[in-house]
Amino acid sequence: MKTKYVVVEDYNPEWKNEFERIKNELLTVLAEKINSIEHVGSTSIEGLAAKPIIDIDIVIDKNFEEVKKALESIGYIYEGDLGISGREAFDYKNKPHLMVHHLYVCNKDNKELYRHITFRNYLRQHKEDRDRYGSIKKEMALKYPEDIDLYIKGKESVILDIYNKCGLCK
User: Fold this and answer.
1) Which of 52, 94, 113, 156 shows its CA 20 to 30 Å from the CA of 41?
2) Which residue ranges traverse the bilayer (predicted)?
3) Helix, strand, coil share of the chain (percent; to 5)
């Protein structure tokens, strides 16, 4: 299901629609149980080049077990926090009708959720930084197509600069 190669594509307006399709399926079991479903990550930022994977944060209010059971009822598999405290990850099987996506559940006061939303909102409003970030993503994907760790490390200085500008650096 998940790609081995780092592929970064130009922004695709269909990503919004794909997010909505996933969100609508999630809401069939999550309506009334959650605060919101947020489209985060690069595919949520109009004009930004991205890996064609939809990143989704489900925002909850301390009712993780209830949400986990609901997600499991529609084929999601709980994977733990994958090393990021308070951000609970889910995988899935048998969802060929949906675009590849990463699904996380976070309490509304979670630091990772705050980081995702702040970064997303900043880039939506600052074209120069959005374009600079898109350029480094494309450059690193071409340079390290088979090494996600080096791809991530190569983007780090630009990300940290943007974090500083939007108040995410400590």
Assistant:
1) 94
2) none
3) 45, 20, 35
